[in-house]
Please model this.
Amino acid sequence: MFDNIMIAFTISITITVYFVSRKIFIMSHNAVLNPVLLSTATIILILHYTGITFEQYKPGKDIMTFFLGPATVALALPLYLNRQALRKSLLPILVGIACGAISTLTTAVLLAKLSGLDSIILTSIAPKSITAPIAIETALHTGGDPAIAVAFVIFTGTLGSIIGAGFLSFCKVNNSIARGLAMGVTAHGQGTAIILQEGQMQGAMAGVAMAIAAILISFIGPFYIPWLVSL
Model:
């Protein structure tokens, strides 16, 4: 009985905190008040001061994680509504996603290599810009550490969702399709959630970019990453 109450409590707290964080972000339009970053920090503080351990929080977290699948599938709706734009520019979109996915992987590994980091860090940082489940499998197949890979994925998504849209505006990238693709390729789910608030077109393109980039890296990663690390 207590376990069920704890699960319901942790889920309620998480949803409430994220809802409030999202409202704050929408009202303030301040990139630093990113809802993922703000809600994560708030939940950590709540768990700390209420004495709730991660083991007690985990069952509720697992239930919420399960619904990430249906939530991702829901991105198909804005994609369907903007399918004509996708058909019209299909080839440039696919080429852009492929170039973006490969370049962000390559630059991450080469910069880490130039910094003299250990090989396990190099292989773990490589899938930083794809969704966490595929990043875990990619790390396992390339000799990386799944925990480190997930940490880089979360950091990349959070940083990208905070500065990504502003950086694109600074670079005068105003095209809705280009903005969505850039956020989806570099900041996966978190970037998609943020750019979706700009419009359905941006959200649709980000969802496409996130999915295709993840599929591409899952195919080429086991061969390309070890070769890149060995250079």
About this structure: The radius of gyration is 18 Å. The chain has two domains: 2-65, 78-230.
